[in-house]
Amino acid sequence: MIQFLENIQHKNSKNFFLIAGPCIIEGEDMALRIAEKVIEITNKFEIPYIFKGSFKKANRSRVDSFTSIGEEKSLEILRKVGETFNIPTTTDIHENEHAALAAQYVDVLQIPAFLVRQTDLLIAAAKTGKCVTLKKGQFLSPESMKFAIEKMTDSGNLKTAIIERGNSFGYTDLVVDFRGIPTMKNYAPVILDVTHSLQQPNQSSGVTGGRPDLIETIAKAGIAVGSDGLFIETHPDLSVALSDGANMLRLDLLENLLGKLTRVRESIL
């Protein structure tokens, strides 16, 4: 997928690529600060980098959960991040109309896991001509993602990748079946969503929990089995994050992690 992104750096480094940023856009200063720090780190290790931030969260457990600072405001911030640092950006879309809207501001559209079987949404994303990442549903087999990719290619879009984000294990946990990564690589490049794979959903509080202490473990395994890219949500202060603070990586821990992962990558080439 990254070969279609003209503004991505280190495309020929043979390293894994990284999608990283906050769960949701909380403000311009925060987004620019995170992007600047991640760019500094990814340049050091020659990691191709795509900035991620949701412009709106539609799949929340509780009606009082934070969803957005404003759709257009968030999209404008994503555009500013891309233009300021000359890097590609991505955001997730939840409705058919969001595809054409978000495509005006970002380089990559992301289809959420719960919506990856929504044919009209996939076709709408495909027809924008943008790169599209498809999150494998927690309820789907790796083999079933073949059909999601076919929906994209049948709609004329070959700029796709699959994101693995774990499988439901009971009601309140997720596990990653790493056997699925080589299977899905037969259909498209595969990105391991490290932080969402460590979520603990369906908590009695209505707020999703997580296991960020296992981020390094899951990420190392993902690189070892051949993931083309990693997806890591990060934030400077998890205690004040407006969404998914329980499973994100603290920003000051990212450099050490990416250094280790780069060495794992070198060892398997």
TrEMBL record:
Gene Ontology MF terms in the entry: 3-deoxy-8-phosphooctulonate synthase activity
UniProt key word Lipoprotein: no
E.C. number(s) listed in UniProt: 2.5.1.55
Leader sequence residues: none
Superkingdom in the source lineage: Bacteria
InterPro entries: Aldolase_TIM, DAHP1/KDSA, KDO8P_synthase
GO BP, sorted A to Z: lipopolysaccharide biosynthetic process
Swiss-Prot/TrEMBL keywords: Cytoplasm, Transferase
SUPFAM superfamilies to which the protein is assigned, alphabetical: Aldolase (SSF51569)
Cellular component terms per the entry's GO annotation: cytoplasm
Enzyme's top EC category: transferase
Cellular compartments annotated: Cytoplasm
Primary site of residence: cytoplasm
Pathway this chain belongs to: Carbohydrate biosynthesis; 3-deoxy-D-manno-octulosonate biosynthesis; 3-deoxy-D-manno-octulosonate from D-ribulose 5-phosphate: step 2/3; Bacterial outer membrane biogenesis; lipopolysaccharide biosynthesis
Catalyzed reactions per annotation: D-arabinose 5-phosphate + phosphoenolpyruvate + H2O = 3-deoxy-alpha-D-manno-2-octulosonate-8-phosphate + phosphate
All copies of domain DAHP synthetase I/KDSA, residue ranges: 7-264
Protein family (similarity comment): Belongs to the KdsA family.
Protein name according to UniProt: 3-deoxy-8-phosphooctulonate synthase
Organism annotation: Halpernia frigidisoli
